[in-house]
Structures are given as C-alpha cells and as structure tokens.
Amino acid sequence: MKHPICVNSDCKICESSLCCTKINNFGVKRSGIEILKNVNLHIHCGDLTAVIGPNGAGKSTLLKAILGEISHTGELQFLDANNGTTKPSMGYVPQKLDLDSTSPTSVLDLFAAAHTNLPIWFTYPKKIRERVRESLALTHGEHLINKRLGELSGGELQRVLLALALDPVPHLLLLDEPVSGIDQKGLELFYQTVSTLRKNYDLSIILVSHDLNLVAEYANRVAFVNNRTIECCGTPQEVFTNEKVIQTFGLDWSNRFQRVEKDWVANALLV
Ligand SMILES: Nc1ncnc2c1ncn2[C@@H]1O[C@H](COP(=O)(O)OP(=O)(O)OP(=O)(O)O)[C@@H](O)[C@H]1O
Question: Ligand 1 mean position to 209 CA, how many Å?
C-alpha cells in the first residue's frame, strides 16, 4: 500500500517501507537573505541520505530547519509504521560544538543532564551509569564515560554526540559531518558505525557530507544542494553522473572513487 503522504506516484519503496519522512517545499531566509527555496526531500526508514554540495550551499541550514532550530516555510511530515502522521523524534550531531576545554563536565554528566533532573553534584544511580555505558557502546565509546568533554578528540566527541543522539533511538537521525578535527580513519569508523546502526534499527538518516568517497560507499540516496535548492536527488549512481554535480565537483574527483567497487562511477566520469 502506498503511504498517504507520498506524492511520488512512481515510488516503489513506499509499498514495502514501514515509515517515511517528507520535507515539503522548505524555504529558509536568514537576515532577509534567501538561503533555501523549494526544497523537497522524501526519506524512507532505513535510508541513509547523504546531503552534498559546495561550501555555503545551505546543507547545515537544511538540517537546522528540519530540526526546527531555525524558522522555515513549508512542512515536515512523518508517517509512522501504524500509518499515523506525527512529529518525528530527532537525534542530531552538529558539525561543531564550542566547548570550554577547562570545564569539569564529563561525558557522564552530559548524558545525566539529558536523562535525569539530578543536580550535577549528586552521585548518579547505578542504572543511569549503566544506561550511559550501553549508549556509548553503540558507538564504541564506552571507555569515554568518565572523560571530561574538553579532553575528547574530535572523533571521540563525535562518537559521544552520536551515542547521545541515539538515546532514545529517534525516528530521524540528522548528522552534520565535521569538516575538521577528524582524520580519515576516524571518519571511516564513523561511517561504519552509522551504517551498522542504520541496518540494526532501520533508521532514517540524513547526513551532510564532504567526503564523496564515503558517500558513494555508504549512502543509498544522495541529495545535491546547489543554487539554494536540491538540484538533484536519487541513488548515488544517478547523482554522481548528473551533469550539474560533475560541473560542481570537477572530473578530477573521480579519482576519489578508486576504493569504490562500482565501475559505473568511474566510467560515467571518464566519458
Ligand atoms: N545566521 C546566519 N545569518 C545569515 N546568513 C547565514 C547565517 N548562517 C548561515 N548563513 C549563510 O547561509 C548560507 C548557507 O550556510 P550553511 O552553513 O548552511 O552552508 P553549508 O552548505 O552547510 O556550508 P559548508 O559546506 O561550508 O559547511 C551561507 O551563505 C551562510 O553564509
């Protein structure tokens, strides 16, 4: 049965998918300047949708608008497995977080602040500590529980924030890939973790990414943001062979796909 909010008459996925999120005609203005217009995106549960585009295109703005952190026009609809439309619960990992490196706040304090009303000077109940450890284990970060936030590396902080975004598991997970502070190995570990979570929880994920290699390897949908809107959206193959995408990133970025076992990418870019 086709989901009632799916307006795409050709959508085969809706027939088998359990839930679905629609971003309908989003527009964003900031300081009177139009940042995004006519943005439409359709996401099924289990989809990892990578949002790519040049610097300043509006990728982070789109995530913040979906979150409701900044105002926008248009609407966000979510259809759950019981065919009810609700406001989706969301987890979010920002691109950067300005932390006071001297602050005594620990990873455990951060989680406890999100899950309890206990003052910070109380000893946390054992069950809280266990819940935090379990959450951190999802992102291979259980050893970080007692570390101060200010002493975490970029990759460690990202793992902690991802674990926090998953507790409880949301309908929609929004990830803004950090542009600095994480090495390639850390980035790959992050993508592998996200990919495992996606499969285990059938999560809908929107991931802003600057690494086209990793996008080609892990995403099943790609949205290209350019000229204040989503200029093309589809499978990685459809998007990476789109003329506008090639124009933006240049032919030389085809080299980045060396590790990807998909000949179509290289072939499409070499013609
Ligand atoms: N608070 C703001 N007021 C006005 N303009 C803003 C504000 N925040 C962002 N912008 C502008 O909105 C545009 C989109 O910014 P955004 O951070 O969403 O881009 P992005 O695609 O995520 O960029 P990057 O790839 O560099 O992270 C930019 O031109 C930016 O200057």
Answer: 15
ipTM (interface predicted TM)? 0.96
In whole angstroms, give the CA distance from residue 245 to residue 265: 12
Which of 34, 35, 51, 69 is the best mutation target for the ligand 1 pocket, counting ligand atoms within 8 Å of the beta carbon and taking the most? 35
| Ligand 1 center–CA 18 separation, angstroms | 34
Q: Give the strands of the sheet with 20-30, arranged side by side.
A: 33-44, 20-30, 73-79, 85-86
In terms of phi and psi (left: phi > 0; alpha: psi -120 to 50; beta: otherwise), the region of 31 is: left
pTM of the shown model: 0.86
Residue 70 main-chain phi, psi, to 5 deg: -125, 150
pLDDT for 170-186, tens place per residue? 889 999 987 666 788 88
Q: What are phi and psi of 53, to 5 degrees?
A: 155, 165
Ligand 1 proximity of 258 Cβ (cutoff 6 Å):
no
Cβ of 28 below 6 Å from ligand 1: no
Nearest residue by C-alpha to atom 6 in ligand 1? 30
CB atoms within 10 A of CB 26: 22
Largest CA distance in the chain: 65
Angle between helices 107-115 and 154-165 (to 10 degrees): 20
Which option is the CATH number for 30-270: 2.60.40.10, 3.40.50.300, 3.30.1360.120, 3.40.50.1860? Answer: 3.40.50.300
Query: Nearest 5°: phi and psi at 175?
Result: -125, 125
Measuring CA to CA, which residue among 253, 258, 185, 174 is closest to residue 208? 174
> In the numeric block, which tokens belong to residue 62?
């789109």
Domain residue spans of the chain: 30-270
